[in-house]
């Protein structure tokens, strides 16, 4: 199980490195977008983080409504994994993290909620910084 996850994650990171190279060096602004089931995509996210959450005694839940995503999967997966890792680092005792998703008028919205320490208001403006 771990070997498969390590190989998959290695391939994803290699792909991300190439995409970051294209973004930064080649100033590429558009990537091929794929249509994928929200259930399938977020199940992959859940499979990647479930063991880590259990090891950290975090109650992790997902509520993903059916829908279709039009995304570059590697980039959005990285966003999700980073947000979930940030949530993992921020929660204290009685830790809870949830990943929710539902269709909206012009796409699909996903929300990551936790019962962690939150952010200071003066830090919110930095949330989109690299």
UniProtKB/TrEMBL annotation:
Pfam family, one: HATPase_c
Residue ranges of every copy of the Histidine kinase/HSP90-like ATPase domain listed in the record: 73-127
Coiled coil stretches, renumbered: none
Name of this chain's protein: Histidine kinase/HSP90-like ATPase domain-containing protein
Species this protein is from: Faecalibacillus intestinalis
């Amino acid at each position: 199980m771990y070997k498969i996850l390590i190989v998959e994650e290695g391939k994803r990171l290699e792909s991300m490195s190439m995409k970051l190279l294209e973004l930064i060096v080649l100033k590429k602004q558009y990537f091929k977008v794929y249509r994928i089931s929200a259930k399938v995509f977020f199940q992959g996210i859940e499979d990647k983080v479930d063991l880590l959450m259990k090891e950290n005694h975090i109650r992790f839940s997902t509520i993903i409504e059916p829908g279709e995503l039009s995304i570059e999967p590697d980039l959005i997966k990285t966003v999700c994994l980073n947000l979930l890792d940030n949530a993992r680092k921020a929660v204290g005792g009685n830790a809870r993290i949830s990943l929710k998703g539902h269709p909206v008028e012009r796409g699909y919205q996903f929300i990551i909620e936790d019962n962690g320490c939150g952010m200071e208001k003066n830090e919110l403006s930095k949330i989109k910084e690299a």
